[in-house]
Design a protein that fits this description.
mainly alpha, globular, transmembrane, transmembrane helix
Length: 252
């Protein structure tokens, strides 16, 4: 959809103040790299528990996260600034997905296919949600059309995830404050019915989806779209604001 956005439209969307801010912020790219590296360390810590059950998957996570870091460091300073939000999101999305596979261990799954299917669906679902949010933003900015179904859907999902995050925090605080009596509760269910198993299964499935898509709240459609447009029309913006190549792109 952004392929049809002209430079004139991009220039009207990205203000001169934003261009000046980006140009100033590119002088401090070391802080961006530092934040990414700290996030990567936490992400790797979240991925490590899975090594007890699926050694191959934490290795894959390390490769994915490592490649993200290498590609980010290789970017020119201005693109380090514009792509920071996207890389940060991808790091935490990877961490969430590879952390959740710990809870998908099934004895009968000898070939570890369940985590593989979950990883594929996890990335697929998050990409679809991100794409819907980006398309919604592009339509809001560059098209004067009525509210579409996709816009409503992406907004609803985002609000649900926000509510899920709040409930998760409340649940953690509640557990910490009432841990002593929760641990002493009699949870024995001698005659658990099929319906109870179904309810628990649905509840766990909802939790799995919620925690998998939670990192999408970090993603900013506006920053992503503007980063793509600046990348697409980098030379046009540079010439319009009369920057030299060194002033605009910076030094690696």
């Amino acid at each position: 959809m952004m392929k049809n956005v002209s430079y004139e439209e991009a220039r009207d969307t990205i203000s001169s103040k934003e261009i000046e801010q980006i140009n100033t912020m590119k002088e401090h790219t070391s802080s961006y790299i530092g934040k990414i590296m700290v996030s990567i360390l936490f992400a790797l810590l979240l991925c490590l528990p899975a090594i007890n059950y699926y050694p191959i998957y934490p290795a894959v996570a390390c490769i994915l996260i490592g490649s993200l870091l290498i590609r980010y460091v290789a970017l020119q300073p201005i693109f380090k600034v514009t792509n920071y939000n996207l890389v940060l999101y991808l790091v935490w999305q990877t961490a969430a997905i590879f952390f959740m596979i710990v809870f998908l261990r099934v004895e009968a799954d000898r070939y570890h296919l369940i985590p593989l299917v979950y990883i594929i669906l996890g990335y697929g679902g998050s990409i679809l949600l991100i794409r819907a949010r980006v398309n919604t933003y592009v339509k809001e900015i560059f098209e004067t059309t009525a509210k579409s179904g996709k816009k409503v859907f992406s907004n609803i999902i985002t609000k649900i995830l926000g509510a899920f995050l709040v409930l998760a925090v409340i649940a953690v605080l509640f557990y910490r404050g009432n841990k002593w009596w929760l641990m002493n509760m009699d949870t024995a269910v001698g005659n658990s019915s099929f319906l109870e198993y179904v309810v628990w299964g649905i509840g766990l499935f909802i939790l799995l989806i919620g925690f998998t898509l939670l990192p999408t709240l970090l993603f900013s459609p506006s920053q992503y779209v503007k980063a793509r447009l600046i990348g697409k029309y980098a030379e046009e913006f540079r010439k319009a604001y009369r920057f030299t190549e060194k002033e605009w792109y910076g030094e690696k």
